[in-house]
Structure formats: structure tokens, C-alpha cells
């Protein structure tokens, strides 16, 4: 079995490990900003297609002691790169981590690239070109405590970029984080889902994809592994067919989103059309002050501005108080989840949360607050 590593947002490692196990991964071990696991090639393709939380799935090629540039050179040279890369394929090297003597990632990446193309020149008399944006083979090098791990990036562009969302608002929530928040909440498709501050629609759309069992990787142009030398097209087509056959035709309960800004509602509708769920999810332009519960019970979900990127010049305290009033007065019988990166503002909601979960939105520490509304 091959060794893989799924990179995820900080704090979501355990949740990602659970998702990997559900997809059939073996020997799953949560780590820092990711989870290690084992499996075959079919699992690698399956995780890229079906997993909702990871950014990238890395295939571990080698690991060796690496104290300095000389160790790095020898370790990279010991790998037979002809198994993974021919001169007609482009490459890129991404380096992360550092040690006392290798503390500059740009130098590390350059050193690794030089060793690989030198090996190609010796063997083939030709070398791969470097392509930083869309390489055929993306190589990852991570240095931690004088150990170097070398991987191939099977995903290509980050998996959080599903491909259905060309239109985004001013401070978009990553699709993978939206999926994680929904997972943490315990929301089930049999419950109505409503986001009254939906922006370009990420939370309702991720809820819709989950409820309809649509694999998030189905919207992507390509994965990194599709240009690998050992790419198995028939296997990949079979898994994609399996994903399509597993999709549901109807939602068990409504999924709604609204926002005061008509322009972002247009973006949300465009995104829903791109991922083929426009007939399932409902978006409308409504002021928060006009929002009412559309059913007797359900899950209310929102990501209000924190004052970091949106709302710096507005009275956010009054906005959060309004949010709390709407919840108290109009959503009895519902469960509400509010993601906030500002503790002071969250107090203005005026409700006592029954649960708080620490979450990172990028580098910003946030809390997902749960409110039981009686």
C-alpha cells in the first residue's frame, strides 16, 4: 500500500481523519494540518474526488535524514525520477518547513529542482521545463526536525477550489471550510438549511452538494494525477461514473440562502447554475431585518462580518444585536450556528451559546457558536 498525506486547515485534522476512514483509508493518523493514511491507487483517486475537507492529497515517495544541503542533494539524487517524470513533462517544486541549516524554502526548492533536471540530463540528454502554475508533476519537499519528506501532489490546484465558484463575494469562505462547518454542526439533509447572510452562496451550496451526495471533485477541470506516467484512465472513469450514479435527485428538505446585496445573490445563482443545483437551492435578496423563519424548525447558519475584511466602517455591534434579535424573536424551534472571529462582537448577539468550537478561517482564529432557540 502507498503512503499518503491529506493537508487540511489547522484544527480540522481529526474531522478529516474521520472522513478519510469513511472513504476507505487505512492506518489513518491525524497530524499537524493534515492526516497520514495508506491505500492503493483507487483510494488516491477516490479521496481526490469525494473528500470535502482536504486541500491536497500527497503521495509520499521517500523520507531521509537531512541536516544540510549536501544531505538534501544526496537524498533527492537517490530517487529514480524517471519513474515519475520524463523530459517532455513540466515540473514544479514546492518546499515547506526548515531546519537550522536549511532555513530558506526557495533555496531548498531550487536545489531539489537542480538535482532532478541534472539526473534527467545525464540519462536522457534533455530535461523538464519548470511550470509553476499548471505543472504536469508537482513535487513537494517538507523539512521537519532534520528529516526530509518527498511527495508528489496528486491534486494539482487546491481541492477547496471546487471549480463551481468563479463568482465570489468580498470575503469568501473557502468551500472546504464551509463543508467542515456543516460537518461539525451535525446538520442532516432532512433538516431545512437557511443562511441569511449567504454572500456568493458557499454554505448553502456545500450543504446542497452534501445532501444530494454530489462529489465535490466532479466540477474540476483536472487533478494532478491525470498527467502522471502511471495514470489509469479507465479506473478514474469508473470512479467518476460511480460518483454520478450515487447522486440523489431531490432534497429531503429545502436549502435557502439570502443576502441584502442583489449583486452577490446574482453570483450565488450563477454558482448554483455552474454546479447544477439551481433547481434545488433557493436564493433571494432580503435585508437581515426582514428575515423570518421559513419553517417551524431547521438549521440557521451564517458567517457574519468580523471587521477584518468586511464591515470595518460600519456599526457591527448594532448588526450583531440585530442578528440576535432576529434569532430570538423569529426562529424559535431552530438551531443556529454563527461563525465569528470577534469575541466582543459575538457578545452583542445577546444569546448564550450551548457549544463553541474553535476554528481557523485562514489564519484568523474563530469560533463556531451553537444556539438552541426555544
UniProtKB/TrEMBL annotation:
GO MF annotation terms: RNA binding; rRNA (guanine-N2-)-methyltransferase activity; rRNA (guanine-N7-)-methyltransferase activity
Any matching Pfam family: THUMP
CDD domains: THUMP_AdoMetMT (cd11715)
THUMP domain sequence ranges: 43-154
Alphabetical UniProt keywords: Methyltransferase, RNA-binding, Transferase
Cited SMART domains: THUMP (SM00981)
Protein name: THUMP domain-containing protein
Organism: Tumidithrix elongata BACA0141
